[in-house]
Amino acid sequence: MHHFHYQDGELWAEDVKVTDLAERYETPLYVYSAATLKRHFQAFDSAFNRPHLCCFSVKSNSNLSILKLLGQFGAGMDIVSGGELHRALTAGIDPHKIVFSGVGKQKHEIQAALMADILIFNIESVQELYQLSEQAQFLGKTARISLRINPDIDPQTHPYISTGLEQNKFGIDISQALETYRLAQQLPGIDPIGIDCHIGSQLTKISPFLDALERLKDLYNQLSEQDIHIKYLDLGGGLGIPYSEETPPHPVELGQALTKSLQGYDLTLILEPGRVISGNAGILVTRVLFFKQSKTKNFVVIDAAMNDLIRPSLYNAYHRVDEVVPQGRDEQSVDIVGPICETGDFLAQDRLIPQVSPGELLAVYTAGAYGFTMSSQYNSRPRAAEVLIDGDQSYLIRRREIYQDLMALEKPYLDGEGGTM
């Protein structure tokens, strides 16, 4: 459920007309609903009837205002880089609610997280474990860790967002887990207190979660026999949302299944929801530039492009596209394409939508996760603005980039001045 709805013949975001937003902030424009973010987080967080911590996946939507808002609702943060750590801390998130995942943590990122005293590092390789031990000793800190276990479970999702199969780059093979925990227990500066597992994104069934959990429970029992005392079980995120015809389980179903499976286990559960919180809390508003016909295709050319929303080009992902002000016209099959000089620049292909004319507005739904965060300046296109709606108020939470922003970090080569050997 979300707070984008039609009223008086046009689309509203909460209590604000989308046409007014497009006029004030121009397009392309990301629009987020505070009420939807609150509804989704509270629906997810209340679904687990046991000690737990919900750490929002920062990579899905990293805007400071979004992070701060979710933090006010009680969210922790799941980070995968030093930059995301900096964002989370700047947004006022309690470091003891931050977990650090990712296969390639650099020294400066590890040091920053140690100095912040985050809750847990999710370790993905033995070499990373040694690196963390070295840095913890150097700084006089103790690093609380989980090992991210690769359980070789098929999440039945897109191969690019599958992370729990043995051919994926993520995690430590479950057959090597016990040995690696023994090593972690012996290393100075390391305190193994958790088990971590994340098998993929956009999951539409509960069974892969439960299959992975059974393997983690076996590992937990083995660790208990070795006097390695685990306090946290991190099952990652990945619960899907409806982009099109998907029917993913409600968080309550997942919560009930996990609670039942974990009866008798004295563990605090960590979840890392991302798209299930922010996906349907955002839309991308775009304006029609031209209508173009070839012998075999109709093209609607818009001012948004793959640099603004890359998911359709990268994953062949479906995003619903609707008129902001419906006119009741007949539908036609079109490709909805952007101005970028790539054949792969499309937001929809062979899509039935009402006939539209230049100047009209379209809304691209389910764009609140992995939309702006994956956007770029390809073709030297300034990135879109982001607006947060709260009731009848709109807040510009990231201004639209201008041409000067494109070159702000560049230092032109001029007659060899300033060169170095």
Enumerate how many helices there are, as a single number.
12
How far is the N terminus from the C terminus?
59 Å
- Share in β-strands: 25-35%
CATH topology title of the largest domain: TIM Barrel
What is the level 1 CATH name of the largest domain? Alpha Beta
Mean pLDDT: 92
The radius of gyration is: 23 Å
CATH superfamily of the largest domain: Alanine racemase
Give an overview in words.
This protein has helices at 18-25, 34-45, 64-72, 82-90, 107-116, 126-139, 177-186, 207-225, 251-261, 275-278, 311-315, 403-406, and strands spanning 4-7, 10-13, 16-17, 29-33, 52-57, 76-79, 98-100, 120-123, 143-150, 172-173, 190-196, 232-234, 268-271, 282-293, 298-302, 321-323, 331-337, 346-354, 361-364, 385-390, 393-398. With 421 residues, it is of the alpha/beta class. Strands 4, 14, 15, 16, 17, 18, 19, 20 and 21 form a nine-stranded mixed beta sheet that branches. It has an eight-stranded parallel β-barrel with strand order 5-6-7-8-9-11-12-13, surrounded by four helices. α9 (251-261) links the parallel β12 and β13.
